[in-house]
Specification:
The structure holds 3 protein chains of 3 kinds.
Chain A: H1 5-11, H2 26-31, H3 34-41, H4 45-71, H5 88-94, H6 97-129, H7 135-147, H8 150-161, H9 166-173, H10 185-212, H11 217-225, H12 230-241, H13 243-258, H14 262-268, H15 281-289, H16 296-325
Chain B: H1 23-33, H2 42-71, H3 93-101, H4 104-135, H5 141-153, H6 160-169, H7 176-180, H8 187-198, H9 202-210, H10 215-226, H11 228-244, H12 247-252, H13 261-272, H14 276-307
Helix pairs in contact in B: 2-14, 3-14, 4-8, 4-11, 4-13, 5-8, 8-11, 9-10, 11-14, 13-14
Chain C: H1 3-16, H2 34-40, E1 58-65, H3 68-85, E2 89-96, H4 101-111, E3 117-120, H5 122-130, H6 137-140, H7 150-154, E4 167-172, E5 176-179, H8 180-185, H9 197-210, H10 224-230, H11 247-261, H12 274-282, E6 288-290, H13 295-302, H14 304-308, E7 310-313, E8 325-331, H15 338-349, H16 351-358, H17 374-377, H18 383-395, H19 408-422, H20 428-445
Parallel strand pairs in C: 1-2, 1-3
Antiparallel strand pairs in C: 3-8, 4-8, 5-6, 5-7
Helix pairs in contact in C: 19-20
The chains are: A mainly alpha, B mainly alpha, C alpha/beta.
């Protein structure tokens, strides 16, 4: 959901932006020993440097979030102050069918979208890796969906998948008959996943491209000498060489996929498809918490759950990453 | 350590060319077409182009279809089967109607102001903070990094009203500055810059340090120019974020004179809900500036992703 | 274009699902907070006076809901007239887009930046009144009550609370269009369209059977308005609980389930939007669809064959009363210019202003006597006028079936329950019982 520019990149289910690899152990090793001299001298400027960023993020993201956490223990409504209700909101979650539907869909989203976004962009990167004429054009073109806004992408695909849209017109022209992409519960969800993958492909392709550039050519040559075919080389040379990048892509795309909102909201509608069966967790936050009658306390509790899960996903990455180092 | 520094020692823009033209890549490129009998076989080349074209159709097709729809006149059937890809009688009529309904240019100007400011603040703020996190040793560095990582994970759906109340307390609601502020230095961009700086070798800066350059000089003269690519990435994300944002400007702004394009285009929905051509024209207006911007910056951009976090 | 489309209907569409709406469940128009709201009410809790008898002076802000695109000159003229009448008063008019209106209002309400005079609908007024933000007009402007239709005045009263919280503004209702050719093809009398739900169900089954499931009669799942028109009691008298899970409600839903299984209710009804059902009617895949006088133009232009066969009939109703939508204009209790705000809210909604607005677009005035104007009674041979006259007539008895306390969240609950029943996942009884339980819980928390 692109509610704020700050959050836009991190909260859509699309690519979360070039991955940030937290690697506490990395720098000091590379930097010592000369780096230490530089660092010693600096006492005040670091805070000066970091202050604007910390201030903005603190005031406009973290502070509101802290109040969200506090709200999750109250029965606050949009226009009415709440009172402390302990864990009542969380207990209510356990009995809320819609919450479980949301959890199911968000989890399903992670399970389908993440493998696709780990594998497909890698294949695409291999396709555009070779410097053949015109390749720069193809690379840029494949990146276009990443640049377009999710709202526009949503509108475009709703029109494409409309009962009378391009996809169905083509299907009908070849005699396959119409498919109700936007009316069936599962087709809707999978269409939305498709859009997420479509929008993310180019993005992760670039990341893999950069990683591939670091794969020593000698490895491929050695494998070729051993008589390994392209598939074999892909599995035994390429994959191991970009493994840490794959872990990273998996982690980041899973965090984003778990927080999916826009694609499903745009395609399935605010109510979340037939009988609300396509509702995701963030959609549920939006639906229950906003508007004049929004239940801020309850929606905050769902936000907290989402936050906890995404932090867990992130920790999972860091662990996998650390293992990689050893 | 997967070598972040192998290509960077001698290059003024370390890692910048990783994706395209490191010495290694250049060598490979020569191999594709060189005369040592290792030329890529013709069938492989053809296969590659065939695959590239298929992917191209999937990635670009929907945009072209939208463009085509927006150019079709009121009497052309946009639902025909088989579909007609080219407008039989291309017209800008739909764009005129959009412009008649809402002051597109005023709104676009507001959007542009916010987006440009957002690019500026993000580039400066994120570069400064990123540099501090990556380069400077100080107490609380880890905590500061954690602050940004956590901020990135916050689901924004739940906090928008709290953001608005904060903005009101600052008396900045109903201003373009209010639209700008929450995203003006995004956590993601800070972390992006941090990683780019982490990948810079210390040696260059060390030399400047020995020459007596202070931290600001090193930052502006050495570190910053070396991460131009990542700055381009940040710039594009910042522009996209501001240009695309809908809900936040809607909440903060009250005065229609200050509306941004996304809010303005929304007037089209209620009014022309049934006309796909107009909706298409609206989306083209919204997306075209981004594509143009990207086309201009793409060279830096691809570099930026290369030098960004992936390596290291 | 149409107020109808842009405000009320697109709003109700969003409850269901709007493929065209990039954001937010709720919709439409306007805020203005602006100068006064912001600087004068900057403190937030200092409330204005409820006394409207003072001098009409000072600057006030008036916010509408998605009306600027099409009625700019009308509102500018209106503001000019008001300022001429009260030279010491100044009105700043702002308009908000269709999308996200409720979010905008709730942010402003929470932040103390709500404009002085706000265009609302009954379901928006209820939470604002409960939060003490809507001025009780019975106290401050009771003398104006007699100018409006009694039903319209009552529509902004909130069960469980004393008082009336907004001036009634324009009303909306529309006929039902039907495709005579499709009725004829099914062997039905094209000049005897269904009037009650029972007739509707019989005809729908016949249409589906004859066309072997190709032609559905209805494209929308039943909404709370349908339950109301079917004669289902929606709420108890005290306004403390919902009752649409009674025998009548179950009966209606059971019937719809049969229609759905027989394909007499379109297979995509569960995800339908007003836009998608409009298209289906246009392409003659669906035989009946609600609409307004303005749709006729569209039919003529986009679907000439349909236009030749178009039939117009009143809404299906078992109670003899049609459904109507009501728009209102409320005054913010925190305004510093109560006399000016009340005077302006009344000015916007008085008979003269409503009449001239009605002549611009297919809406209807809520003031007494206005509907007897020749404009609403004299036929001139055009279809448009015919539709308008019929609608004006039905409005004299029409009811706003949607309970004032029925929030967006409750609409989603009902919609989902209906979908579960139609899909056969739950029995109609079970689904409605669950929906009522959920709505009651939401009601208690609101």
């Amino acid at each position: 959901m692109k509610s704020t520019a700050a959050a836009s990149a991190s909260a859509t289910a699309g690519p979360p932006g070039p991955p940030v690899k937290a690697r506490p152990s990395g720098t000091p090793k590379a930097a010592a020993p000369q780096g230490r001299r530089i660092r010693r001298q600096l006492v005040t400027s670091p805070w000066l440097f970091a202050a604007p960023g910390l201030a903005i993020v603190g005031i406009f993201i973290l502070y509101p979030f802290v109040s969200t956490v506090i709200n999750s223990f109250t029965d606050k409504r949009q226009l009415i102050e709440g009172k402390y209700v302990g864990l009542a909101n969380f207990r209510e979650l356990l009995h809320d069918d819609m919450f479980w539907i949301g959890l199911r869909n968000s989890t399903l989203y992670v399970l389908v979208v993440v493998p696709a976004l780990v594998v497909l962009p890698l294949l695409l990167a291999l396709l555009v890796q070779k410097q053949i004429p015109g390749i720069t054009f193809f690379r840029s073109a494949f990146y276009t969906p990443v640049v377009a806004s999710i709202v526009v992408v949503g509108l475009i695909w709703v029109w494409m998948l409309d009962e009378r849209g391009l996809v169905n017109a083509v299907l009908e022209a070849v005699g396959a008959g119409k498919v109700g992409f936007l009316s069936d519960q599962w087709l809707l969800l999978f269409s939305a996943m498709g859009v997420t993958v479509w929008k993310g492909l180019g993005y992760y392709m670039i990341i893999y491209l950069a990683a591939l550039a670091n794969v020593p050519r000698e490895l491929h040559e050695a494998a070729a000498v051993d008589g390994a075919g392209p598939v074999r080389r892909f599995i035994s040379v390429t994959v191991p060489a970009v493994r840490s990048t794959m872990v990273l892509v998996a982690a980041l795309s899973s965090v984003a996929a778990f927080k999916v909102f826009s694609e499903v909201y745009l395609m399935a509608g605010p109510a979340g498809g037939p009988a609300g069966e396509d509702t995701t967790l963030v959609m549920l936050v939006q639906r229950t918490g906003t508007g004049l009658t929004g239940r801020v306390g309850y929606a905050s509790a769902i936000s907290v759950v989402i936050f906890v899960v995404t932090v867990a996903l992130m920790l999972l990455v860091l662990r996998a990453d650390r293992k990689e180092d050893k | 350590m997967p070598a972040p520094t192998t290509t960077t020692k001698d290059a003024p823009e370390p890692g910048a060319d990783a994706a395209e033209s490191t010495p290694r890549a250049r060598r490979r490129r020569r191999r594709v077409t060189d005369e040592n009998g290792r030329r890529m076989p013709m069938w492989e080349l053809l296969l590659r182009y065939a695959l590239l074209l298929v992917v191209l159709a999937v990635m670009i097709g929907p945009f072209l279809w939208q463009l085509s729809t927006s150019l079709k006149g009121p009497h052309e059937n946009i639902f025909s089967s088989p579909p007609s890809f080219l407008p039989s009688d291309p017209t800008l009529h739909n764009y005129e109607r959009v412009a008649d309904t809402i002051p597109v240019w005023d709104y676009a100007l507001n959007s542009l102001k916010v987006a440009a400011a957002n690019v500026f603040t993000n580039c400066v703020g994120a570069a400064l903070a990123g540099y501090a996190l990556a380069r400077l040793r100080y107490r609380g560095r880890k905590a500061a990094t954690l602050v940004f990582i956590l901020a990135m994970l916050v689901p924004v759906e739940g906090i928008i009203i709290a953001q608005f109340t904060t903005m009101r307390d600052l008396d900045l609601n109903n201003t373009l500055i209010g639209v700008l502020l929450p995203g003006c230095i995004s956590a993601l961009n800070v972390l992006l810059m941090r990683n780019a700086f982490l990948n810079l070798p210390y040696e260059v800066e060390e030399a400047a340090f020995v020459d007596g350059a202070n931290v600001w000089q090193r930052f502006f003269r050495i570190a910053l120019p070396a991460v131009k690519g990542t700055l381009a990435v940040v710039a594009i994300f910042a522009f996209m974020g501001a240009w695309d944002d809908f809900l936040w400007p809607l909440i903060v702004l009250s005065d229609p004179d200050k509306f941004t394009l996304t809010i303005g285009l929304n007037y089209l929905h209620g009014t022309f809900a049934n006309d796909e051509r107009l909706v298409a024209a609206g989306t083209v207006i919204a997306v075209l500036p981004l594509i143009v911007l990207f086309a201009c910056l793409q060279r830096y951009f691809f570099r930026g992703v290369g030098e960004g976090a992936v390596k290291g | 274009m149409r107020v109808y489309q842009s405000s009320r209907i697109s709003r109700s569409s969003r409850i269901s699902r709007s493929s065209r709406s990039p954001r937010r469940a709720v919709t439409a128009a306007a805020l203005a907070a602006a100068l006064l709201g912001l600087s004068a009410c900057g403190g937030g809790d200092d409330s204005g006076s409820a006394d409207a008898s003072g001098k009409v002076e000072g600057e006030i802000t008036f916010q509408t809901w998605n009306l600027k695109a099409n009625f700019k000159s009308y509102f500018e003229g209106l503001v000019d007239d008001f300022e001429k009448k009260y030279p010491d008063a100044k009105v700043k008019w702002v308009d908000q887009p269709g999308e996200g209106y409720a979010d905008k209002i709730s942010a402003d309400a929470a932040g103390g930046t709500l404009p002085d005079v706000v265009n609302v609908s009954p379901d928006l007024v209820a939470p604002l009144a409960k939060a003490g933000l809507a001025l009780d007009l019975d106290k401050s402007a009771g003398k104006y009550e007699k100018e409006y239709l009694p039903g319209a005045w009552k529509s902004h009263q909130v069960p469980g609370m004393e008082g009336t919280y907004a001036f009634p503004w324009y009303l909306n209702t529309g006929p039902l269009f039907y495709n005579k050719r499709l009725f004829k093809d099914a062997g039905l009398d094209a000049n005897k369209p269904p009037k009650t739900y029972d007739e509707l169900f019989t005809d729908a089954e016949a249409l589906a059977k004859k066309s072997k499931g190709d032609v559905a009669t209805l494209a929308n799942v039943p909404t709370i308005e349908d339950f109301g028109r079917y004669g289902v009691p929606l709420m108890n008298k005290e306004g403390t609980g919902f009752t649409f899970n009674g025998a009548k409600g179950v009966e209606l839903l059971t019937k719809y389930k049969e229609l759905y299984d027989a394909k007499a209710l379109d297979g995509q009804a569960l995800t339908a939007t007003p836009e998608s059902t409009g298209k289906k009617f246009l392409t003659e895949a669906v035989a009946m669809n609600p609409g307004s006088a303005l749709d006729l133009e569209k039919f003529k232009k986009d679907a000439p064959r349909l236009y030749e066969n178009i039939g117009i009939t009143p809404q299906i109703s078992n109670t003899g009363k049609d459904n109507m939508y009501v728009m209102g204009v409320m005054v913010n209790t925190r305004t510093k210019r109560t006399p000016a705000a009340v005077a302006f809210a009344h000015f916007v909604t008085d008979a003269q202003r409503q009449m001239s607005f009605a002549k611009k677009v297919a809406i209807f005035p809520s003031t007494k006597g206005s509907l007897d104007d020749p404009y609403f009674t004299k036929a001139d041979g055009t279809d448009e006028t015919r539709v308008r006259i019929a609608a004006a007539k039905s409005l004299k008895t029409a009811v706003n079936y949607t309970p004032v306390l029925f929030s967006e969240q409750m609409k989603v609950e009902l919609r989902n329950a209906v979908a579960r029943a139609l899909q056969g996942k739950q029995s109609p009884e079970e689904a409605l019982d669950n929906a009522v339980k959920a709505c009651d819980r939401l009601l208690k928390q609101s």
